[in-house]
Amino acid sequence: LLLFLGTLLYAYAEALVKLLVPARRKAVRGELVLVTGAGRGLGRATAREFARRQSRLVLWDVEPHGLKETAAECERLGAAVQAFVVDCSKREEIYSAAEKVKKDIGDVSILVNNAGVITAADLLSTQDHQIEKMFEVNILAHIWTTRAFLPAMMNNNRGHIVTVASAAGHFVTSFMVAYCSSKFAAVGFHKALTEELSTLGKDGIKTTCVCPVFINTGFVKNP
């Protein structure tokens, strides 16, 4: 509890400082931005923000209807949008879609690994396939997409990889054992990737880890 309160107070103090002395925003106009899980919730909100800043968008989601709605919203905001139905639990689909993007559209300069799934239940009630799906989407998909788009960033020493993890990647809670484990892995992936890029001298490739708390997007019933 003390650790949580200390972290909370630090976060509010940091937010206040950034409010009073805002940092210069990264210029993203014209950048090719790929957002996974763009069909709803945080992915859709992220896509809209990039659209407002005149980025070129590649949107992935497993659900065609939500993906189409997000693409239409972003186009109304003036962005050029390409949408792909991709199941991020399947490595082959990720690699296939990534090759199509690179061939037909160009090199992705900002990758937002946002797709995620959750099953909220005690460990013994969580089915094997549900546990596998959470790890396939919440962490393995991050690795496959990064492996697909990182080579071009490495060649240019330019790019940005965003890992959307969760507060559950820092603090645990009951009835979310598999989910917390996958999000701890996502945070670890971000930290290890950041360290490796630094070791390789690729200072032009930036990394960001986003760890939301509860967001009422329909992702979880009664969050």
UniProtKB/TrEMBL annotation:
Keywords: Endoplasmic reticulum, Lipid biosynthesis, Lipid droplet, Lipid metabolism, Membrane, NADP, Oxidoreductase, Signal, Steroid biosynthesis, Transmembrane, Transmembrane helix
Listed Gene3D superfamilies: NAD(P)-binding Rossmann-like Domain
The protein's enzyme class: oxidoreductase
Topology within the bilayer: Multi-pass membrane protein
Protein localization: Endoplasmic reticulum; Lipid droplet; Membrane
E.C. numbers: 1.1.1.300, 1.1.1.62
Pfam families reported for this sequence: adh_short (PF00106)
Family: Belongs to the short-chain dehydrogenases/reductases (SDR) family. 17-beta-HSD 3 subfamily.
Protein name: Estradiol 17-beta-dehydrogenase 11
Organism the protein comes from: Anseranas semipalmata
